[in-house]
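Lay summary. Proteins are chains of building blocks that fold into shapes, and those shapes determine what they do. In this project we predict the shape from the chain. Here is one chain we studied, written as its sequence of building blocks.
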Amino acid sequence: MNRQTEHVVARVSSKHDLRGWVKGSDKDIGGFSSVWLDVTRAGHARFHGYISQTLPEDRRFKRSGYAMVRTCDPQANILNTGCWDSSLFRYLALRVKADRRKYFVNLKSDTLINTDIYQHLLPVRTPGRWETVVIPFNMFTLTSNGVIVASQPSMASTQMETVGLSISDRQEGPFSLEFAWIKAFNSHRTFGECLRLPYTADLVWKTDFARLGKDL
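And here is the predicted shape, written in a compact code that computers can read:
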């Protein structure tokens, strides 16, 4: 099998790129948060809106205040499912400029339960400035309806359907997160879920950031 260096999961530099993206918030269940996804003049996507903690009138809901965006559902045809294979890569990388709020990266794979989402906190280190965030695929945690699943089965990594971003940090107010691209990639020491060479954690992270920096 040929080793792939990277795969662009989401291009977001134009309105055409964002066509078909899905956005949602607690407004879908009677809440009052708002969400928008648009393209800046610089050619970056901007996920923004307002998080409201006001509960819906439906008393079954005890908590409110979330918003999300994600790529469109895969377009299957007679030749393939339209999904992409994350098992060929070790990391997910995002080029982002975030405010000081907490965001999650969400991955949806082909599962029997439609609400199953693999999540990881977006580890922003320099709010207000552009940075590249790198997350190993094996660090994502399975959740369902926002709750961590106890059993944690392995991700169906050969059948990845969507990637997205969300916010549900229980803070009232506006939010804004810009992102330039989302990629899956290997360092020179990795071959998807397999290691090509022994490494230390510090060394592999330094290598990965150095390689990604050439594209920024």
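What the prediction tells us: The CA atoms of residues 93 and 134 lie 4 Å apart.
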